[in-house]
Amino acid sequence: MSDRVYNILFLCTGNSARSVLGEAIVNHLGAHDQQGRRFKGFSAGSQPRGEVHPYTLDLLRGLHLPTDGLFSKSWDLYAVAGAPKMDFIFTVCDSAAGEACPVWPGQPMTAHWGIPDPAAAPDSKNGGSEVERRAAFRQAYAALENRVRLFLSLPLASLDRMTLQNRLNAIGRPAPSAAAA
Question: Any idea which of 2-6, 10-14, 170-174 has the lowest mean pLDDT?
Answer without folding.
Answer: 2-6
